[in-house]
Amino acid sequence: INELIQKRQLLEAFASIKYLEDETIAERDAEKYKDNPQEFVRKSKDVDLLYNSITNMIQSIVVGTLEQPTVEDTMLNSLVILIAHEEAAHPNTGNAAGPGSDLLGTPRKWREEWREAINESARKRVQRVPMASKEEESFWLDLHLGFLQKQLSEDLLKIKLSVKKCYPEEYQVCDMYVDAFHNAIASHLQDLSQRPLEFNELYTLLDWVANIYHSELFLGHPDLKPEVKTENLSLLLTPADWDKLKNDYITLAKGKIKSYFGNILRLEVTEKWEKEVHPEVKENLYHSSLSFDIQTIIGEHMKISGAISRSLGTKTLELCLAELHEFIPRFGEEFVAWSTAQDSPVFAPYFTAYINSFHDLVVGALSALCAFWFKPPEQADGWVPLASTSASLIITSAISEFIFFQPLLKKILTKDWILMTERPDSLASAVSQFSEHLQHMREPMGQELLRDVHKYVVREYIMQVIKPRRKMNGETRQQVSEKMNQEARILNNMLIGQGSDSDWLLPAIHHIANIIGEKKKDKIKEYVKELCQDYPDIR
């Protein structure tokens, strides 16, 4: 009988074992072994061992089905007949053999063994898929999942075309194999998810689960339909494992985004500021790639994470905005600090270019976010004030530190200034050199900033004049008054000529100059009154 089993002549072997089993049962019932119970135990054990040998062969045949280049139709057909014969010979009465009792006449449950053999086959097929180490291949996970996808697609196609026809419909052989492969893959992916994965590896795994597994690239391939059904499959990863992967992804994405923004700043410093390369001019506007670079980074990360799940896309978006909110003021501080140290001629052009760029960033990113959220701009919760505030931070930093005006402003009322050794148009010239670049700034920001420059220069000028200093005699006061009026006219004319509409600032320096140059108290009171009329907020 063992020889028949080894030759896979299982139907003949089963018939012989069944004959031996029936004979032993009959002899037991006739109490033939009453005086020799050991002989009964030996024969019962022989029957059990022979049945187990067939069980092992069934498992071997099923596990080996996908290992062979061609399917052995005859063998699988005989396997189905064998299972049917066994089920008929040992009907399941529900009375399982108790501990210590013999197994003669009890169901061998070969159909269940067949199912388990399919599961074992799937496990082995998945485990044998090539997987290089991270040290051997940096894209080890992409390659591994690609091999897994290719091999199992071929297996499922083989099952559909060659294995299915060997079994009756009741066996639902395609469903059995699909479930088996699904569970084997799920177990394998769970093991992979416990490894310390890098950012790109996390993305590869998340993307494969979310976008490839059920797609036409794998289980949903047209060649596998309609036999391969995926509708009722369980989740590949448990919710806890899935959430862990997404949280790890966000954690690593934070560092990656911060690094990207840091690289942007580094390249601006080394390739533009230090080399004093002037920004491009496009449509009469100074242009910087800053907005494009930032939008590209945010857009790419929103795209890939949003394709995995909407919640991951939202978390990534929130992360990008948080990092951007930190980056922009840092960028502005670095820019102003660099210009303070260098007194570079490209500060004003790049200052203008960056304001343009931040405006483009607000508009461009807002459009992208609204498209992502499917909302009109006015419903893009939180982004508009956040983006606008961020974009204005660099303006605020620069306005409070108009470093190229400071040296000239500090000369006011010094000895050289009073003695006219400084040209009266020095300050106006310095302001002009900056403000002329504002014509290359996008409106209305250019006009608004020109107003700020005008207001800043007038305010700082007056603050320098009214600082407590040593007393001046009448002649000196007259000289100061004349110099102030002269500089004010030059300065105001230049700013108005460049487009400033802040007419209300024009008399401010003149009022102070008149007060300084006047000796008579009554006239001083009149000048003070005129000053208060023009600027009622003066206390």
TrEMBL record:
One Pfam family linked to the record: Sec6
Lineage of producing organism: Eukaryota, Metazoa, Chordata, Craniata, Vertebrata
Cellular component GO terms, alphabetical: exocyst
Highest rank taxon of the organism: Eukaryota
Single GO MF descriptor: SNARE binding
Family matches, as Gene3D superfamilies: 1.10.357.50, Exocyst complex component Sec6, C-terminal domain (1.10.357.70)
Protein name (database record): Exocyst complex component 3-like 4
GO process terms (BP): exocyst localization; exocytosis
Protein family per UniProt: Belongs to the SEC6 family.
